[in-house]
Structure formats: C-alpha cells, structure tokens
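Record now logged for everyone:
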Amino acid sequence: MNVPLWVWAATIGAMVAILVIDLAIVDHPWSKKSGPKEFGVRQAAWWAVFYIGIAIVFGFGVMYFGGTTAGAEYFAGFVTEKSLSVDNLFVFYLLMGAFAVPRQYQHEVLLVGIVIALVMRGFFIVLGAQVINAWSEVFYLFGAFLIYTGYKIVRDHVKGEDENQDFSENPAVRLVKRFWPVTDDYHGAHMTVRIDGKRHVTPMLLVIIAIGVVDLVFAVDSIPAIFGLTQDAYIVFTANAFALLGLRQLYFLLAGLMDKLAYISWGLSAIMLFIGVKMILHALHENGVHAPEIGIGASLTVIVGVMAVTIVASLVKARIDDRRRRAAVSGAQEDSSAERS
C-alpha cells in the first residue's frame, strides 16, 4: 500500500495514546486507593477482548482502503504475531517467577516490556525492509532461519529445554550485577534505591533488563516470519503493534492457563515451517525458477487453522489429564478407606 506520511504519524500517535490509556487502566489517578493494584481476571478478559476488537476493526479498515489482499496480509500477520506473542507470555511468566515479582507490580513490568518490544520490532522492521529492497535473495536466508527456528522450538520442547532454560541469568543481567549491588527485596516500583549513601539496583531493574533481552530475541524471530507474509512495511508494523497491544491483559488472563496449552510449541513450529517454505518458494519464483507460490488466502487459512487445532487439542488434553488426576486421587482415597476398614 502507498501510505502517506500523515497516516504513519497518525497511526504511531494512536499507538502512543493507547499505551497511555493502557497504563491508566490500572494506575488511574481518579481511584481513591493509592499505590499499585492487582489486575483481576475479569478485568483482563474485558480489556483483552477490547484490544482484539480494535485490531479486527483496524484490519477491516485496511481491507476497505487498501484492498482485499492487503487486508488478508494484515490478518495473517496479526494472527501469526499474536501467536508468537503468546510464546512471549510463557517466557514472561517464567521471568516473573524467577525474579519473584509481586503481582501488584507485574503490570508495570509488562508495560515496559511491551514498549521495549515495540521499539525493537520497529527497528527490525525498518532494517528488514531496507535489506529486502536491496537484496531479494535474503528471502532464502529468512526462509532457512524460520525452518530452523521451527525445528528448534520442537526440539527444545521435546527435550524440556524450553521449560528448564533460565532466562533470568542472561549476560546483560550478569553485567549489571557485576558493577552494582542488588537489593534483596523490591522497593515498590523503583529500579534503583540509595542505601547507606550508596546507589543500589533493585530486582525490578533486573527483570526489566531480562525482558528487554527476551524481546530482542523474539524480534529476531518474529520479523522474518511476517515478512514472509507481506513486504508492506505499514502492514508489518501495524500487525506487530496490535499483536503487542493488550498483551499485558492477555498475560493475566492466560496466567492460569499456561500449563494447559501443552501443544502451543507444536503449533508455532508448524507455522514457522510453513512460512519458511513459503519464503523460499517466493525467492525461487522471484529468481525465475518455476516454483508454486502460496497465496495470502491459503496462508491465512493455514495459520488460523493450525492455531485453532493447537488450542483445541491443548484444552482437550488438559481436560483429559484433569479427569485422570481426579480419578487417581479418588482411587487412592478409596484404597485408603478400604485399608482402614
């Protein structure tokens, strides 16, 4: 799409306004209660639906002004990035536990993480667009990278490395610990505090640094994925932005379901493999090789279908496992009663 500069400016301005409103959802100044507040599940559910609704309305706007193809590219990119952002939430969930972040401060940590992710992805979008314009063969590299990423997701999941990996001890965190003393406890939302005349950093700063590093890693994965669906920089940016907005509410909504999405890694792996193959076929086609092209309609169908099957299968498995656990507990209780009698 040929997007005027004023539309870019208006879009970015709207994103900033939404972030400000997002912060005000919890930290509203008109509340009689002071201090940070915990995010309730019902509140998170309503706002998560609200943000997804905004993203869908925007997608229909893209379809109206940019055409059916542009709209389909946006929705395919949004679903892909939203799926990958759920994977982000798993890592955020592990980080919150590793740093023992109090629940009332988690929303602030997540908001900072979302802002960092937006900045990171904005940088990689600009870089990726320039590279694609200068060197179309980069699609081979992106495709191979996504195929390897899909393989790595499944490999780590099968080996259990995705659960055992310690994201809290990355080089950036260790570097901070090396030069500054770290307090044992949180001091509200402060990232630094002065104790006995000496400046200390708090665990709040460490968890934000850790999330920033994770955002960088996920940006490297997600940007090639969406460029495999569209090369329109505006669609790439807005699909990423809307996938990230509302992520904070989605975190609190899914916090109790993290262990139930057992097959999410398999679904993300399948999507990565599919887009990787699509990019390589596109590169072959661009270089004059007779190769089939996968249309955006087919891509959207595959991506939505894979995630739907993944979520339904995960929830069915969770229900079956729960029934088995209840049956095992009931059987153990019956055996215990029989022994006593």
